[in-house]
């Protein structure tokens, strides 16, 4: 999505009161509040420098997600989870030095972690919303600018807990191999998943059997070069009809954290 086009829209909307001030491109924004930050999962849509060129290290189609909880933020979807505390004052956000888990991944994914750490590392950032305040149906867009005039644009997805209630937490191992399976819409390539159980000390105590999964995991992208263990939040979406049976229930799967990941070195093959 092009920042210049968004800026034109924001000016037409008429309700935006401030501008990002360090870049060569003036982008009108309005103030965002802590409750608004916490109400959404923010998915990275664009990473650009002050001239509007793509920032090195940020891959196209990135699954990087930014979440806020109170005065803490968490970035996931790259290789490691990146956590920091922050303070919001009008359109200024002071980021404390972030900390990261220490997992190793493929170079392109590691590069995203390095890039976002460098963008936010202990800086005072300029933040705001691009959407018109009176447009309740529009997906919110959060713009974060650092002191070098670089921009990260995030698209807000409503936090699942506000929609569905509290989730069930599960741990799934995801195979780098897929399998052809039959769905209601015909043949498809399904993920191979199996459930992992841990004790209170975080030690793996049980591994389930492999099964097909034809659904979607929000905030996560399949990588055939990696074997991964994910911590997922699973939300039950009950049918509107109170007479519906348990079979009518649907589930929403959202990535909470990548617990383990390892690079596959042997040639891939598909299950028959």
From TrEMBL:
Keywords carried by this UniProt record: Signal
UniProt-listed Gene3D superfamilies: 2.40.128.270
Signal sequence, renumbered to the chain: 1-20
Pfam assignment, any one: META
Stretches assigned to the DUF4377 domain: 174-261
InterPro entries associated with the record: DUF306_Meta_HslJ, DUF4377, HslJ-like_sf, Hsp_HslJ-like
Zinc as UniProt keyword: no
Keyword Signal listed: yes
PROSITE patterns documented for this protein: PROKAR_LIPOPROTEIN (PS51257)
UniProt domain DUF306: residue ranges: 37-122
PANTHER family: HEAT SHOCK PROTEIN HSLJ
Protein name from the UniProt record: DUF4377 domain-containing protein
């Amino acid at each position: 999505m092009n920042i210049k086009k968004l800026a034109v829209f924001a000016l037409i909307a008429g309700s935006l009161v401030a501008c990002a001030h360090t870049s060569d491109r003036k982008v009108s924004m309005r103030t965002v509040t802590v409750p608004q930050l916490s109400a959404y999962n923010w998915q990275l849509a664009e990473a650009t420098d002050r001239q509007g060129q793509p920032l090195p290290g940020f891959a196209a189609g990135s699954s990087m997600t930014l979440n806020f909880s109170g005065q803490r933020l968490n970035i996931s979807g790259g290789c490691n989870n990146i956590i920091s505390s922050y303070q919001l004052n009008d359109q200024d956000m002071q980021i404390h030095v972030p900390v990261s888990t220490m997992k190793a991944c493929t170079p392109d994914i590691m590069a995203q972690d390095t890039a976002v750490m460098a963008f936010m590392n202990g800086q005072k950032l300029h933040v705001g919303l691009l959407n018109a305040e009176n447009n309740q149906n529009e997906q919110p867009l959060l713009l974060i600018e650092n002191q070098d005039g670089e921009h990260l644009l995030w698209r807000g997805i409503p936090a699942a807990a506000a929609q569905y209630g509290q989730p069930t937490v599960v741990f799934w191992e995801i195979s780098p191999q897929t399998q052809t399976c039959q769905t209601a819409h015909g043949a498809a390539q399904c993920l191979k998943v199996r459930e992992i159980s841990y004790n209170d000390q975080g030690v793996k105590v049980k591994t389930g059997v492999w099964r097909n999964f034809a659904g979607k995991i929000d905030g996560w992208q399949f990588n055939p070069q990696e074997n991964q263990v994910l911590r997922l939040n699973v939300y039950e979406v009950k049918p509107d009809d109170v007479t519906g049976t348990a079979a009518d229930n649907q589930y929403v799967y959202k990535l909470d954290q990548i617990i383990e990941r390892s690079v596959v070195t042997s040639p891939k093959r598909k299950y028959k």
